[in-house]
Each structure stands twice: as structure tokens, then as C-alpha cells.
Amino acid sequence: MARGRFIVFEGGEGAGKSTQAALLAEALEGRGLETVLTREPGGTKGAEAIRRLLLDPEGQDWGPQAEALLFAAARSDHVAKLIRPSLERGAWVICDRFVDSTRAYQGGGGGLSDTDILALHRVGSGGLLPDMTILLEGRAAIVADRLARRDGGEHDRIGGRDSAFHRKVAAAFRRFAEAEPERFVRIDSSGPREETHQAVIDALGSLLGQAA
């Protein structure tokens, strides 16, 4: 059986990752493809427990080093128990965030080196990378409006950090996309969700063609 495909949505807060991941999963299922929709941190029982530790707005302030270790632990469980088994049986795995988020948030925003984060990823998850990483980028005013409607003014512990932190995160994502154009596709997610979804389907054209 052919290996499945691993597609990840990345981007800053309010870019539309969860919405577009769900729309893509629905579209793939409509084409008769087995699809697994998941998220990070999370996706397995152990990883969801770590998610609560990391994102609780009233919880511990871990610092970037501890955060990176916790994310790596959650990802290791996620990859071993859900992502790799799904890919091996031929399913398409659609994930809301993966290792590039750790590189952007704890690296770009928190100051950790990319080398150290990727070393943790090699140890914990065998260095697994997506077949395609879709970087969603929305205009600031539109993103702010989405966040207000989505969260009711409340944010998780990492998402609620100041604008300077999030500018560093956005800059890191741009650097990754520019350095790895063979893996990343950048999509403006400022417009209607249907328009963004069509751009995602267009970007996946060659991979979808191989699955036909």
C-alpha cells in the first residue's frame, strides 16, 4: 500500500489554520481518501494532557526551553501513536501546526536556536517533516477581528503574548518558507474562507493528482 500524505497548516494566531484544515479534510474525504484530522499540541491522549499544561492561561509559565521540551514530548507521542501509523496505512494526515510552530514560537519568538529545536525533533519524532506545509498569512486587522470573535477576547497562554513576540513569530515563519520553497506554500488567508480553501486545493494539485 502506498504511503499516505502529511499536510500541515502553519501560521500565526487567527490565520485560519483550524478552519482550513477542517475544510481540506472534508474535501479529501469527498474524493474517497481516508483522512485523519489532528492538531498540535494534541492528537493523542498523552499529547492532549501536555497541551493543557502548555496552554492553560492560568498555568505555569514554563519559559522557552521547557516549552520546547514539552512540545517535543507531545509531538513524539503524536507521531508514534497517530501520525506514522496513519501514513503507513495510506491515510492523508491533516495537522493544525507541527514542528515549524515550535521553530517559530520558541525559536523565533523565544530565542532558542533552530539547531537545538530540530535536534529535539530528530530524537523525539525521527525528524519527520510534512509533504507540504501550508503557511497561512492574514492581514493584521482581519486577524485581530477573527481572534476577537473566536476567543471572546480571551487567549491561551502563548497566543496571548504581546505584539512584539508575534511579529518575531511571523518573521520566523517567513524565513522558513523562503528557505524551503520545495516544502512550503504561502497563502494569503485574508479573504473569504472559500477563496482560501480553493487556493489550498490548487496548491495540492500535484499531490492530489498522484492520489487519483
Number of strands: 5
What share of the residues lie within helices?
Answer: 55-70%
How is the largest sheet built, in terms of strand order?
2-3-1-4-5
Run of helices and strands: EHEHHEHHEHHEHH
Distance between the termini: 14 Å
Identify low-pLDDT runs: none
Radius of gyration from the alpha-carbon trace, in angstroms: 16 Å
What count of helical segments does DSSP give? Answer: 9
The class by helix and strand makeup works out as alpha/beta
- General form: globular
Mean pLDDT rating: 90
Largest sheet: 5 strands, parallel
**Portion in beta strands:** 5-15%
Notes on the structure:
By secondary structure, the protein is of the alpha/beta class. The protein has helices spanning 17-30, 45-55, 63-88, 99-109, 114-125, 140-151, 163-179, 193-203, 205-211; strands at residues 6-10, 35-39, 92-96, 132-137, 184-188. A 5-stranded parallel beta sheet has the order 2-3-1-4-5, sandwiched between helices. The longest helix has 26 residues, at 63-88. The radius of gyration is 16 Å and the shape is globular.
Helices, strands, pairings?
Elements: E1 6-10, H1 17-30, E2 35-39, H2 45-55, H3 63-88, E3 92-96, H4 99-109, H5 114-125, E4 132-137, H6 140-151, H7 163-179, E5 184-188, H8 193-203, H9 205-211
Parallel strand pairs: 1-3, 1-4, 2-3, 4-5
